[in-house]
UniProtKB/TrEMBL annotation:
Residues 3-74 form the ABM domain. InterPro entries: ABM_dom, Dimeric_a/b-barrel. GO terms for molecular function: monooxygenase activity. This is Quinol monooxygenase YgiN. Keywords: Monooxygenase, Oxidoreductase.
Length: 97
């Protein structure tokens, strides 16, 4: 069963002008990971520094492996720094409600 992971990012007001380019580079790494299915990014119309990344993974295990990789020196990225620590992750699974 696929997993949808939603990453809510609020870039710092003083984030560098190229912050979105840096986020894009992080997403390029994400897209190359095993089990990755898709990713979309949406921007808040009232706050252009508020981005939401919607990722779909083949399974919870694939997403877990990705998150574990991100916690290593090799997988570390600057999203937390660009957002001043204001990054929230919520994971969802499909339901038959």
């Amino acid at each position: 069963m696929t997993i949808t992971s939603v990453l809510d990012i609020r870039l710092r007001p003083d984030a560098p002008a190229d912050a979105e380019t840096r986020v894009s580079a992080v997403l390029a790494q994400t897209r190359a990971r095993p089990g990755f299915v898709s990713a979309d990014v949406v921007r808040d119309v009232d706050d252009p520094r508020h981005l939401v990344v919607i990722e779909v993974w083949e399974s919870l295990e694939a997403d877990d492996a990705y998150r574990a990789w991100r916690a290593t020196p090799e997988g570390a990225n600057e999203l937390g720094e660009l957002a001043g620590g204001r990054v929230a992750l919520t994971r969802y699974e499909a339901t038959t409600i």
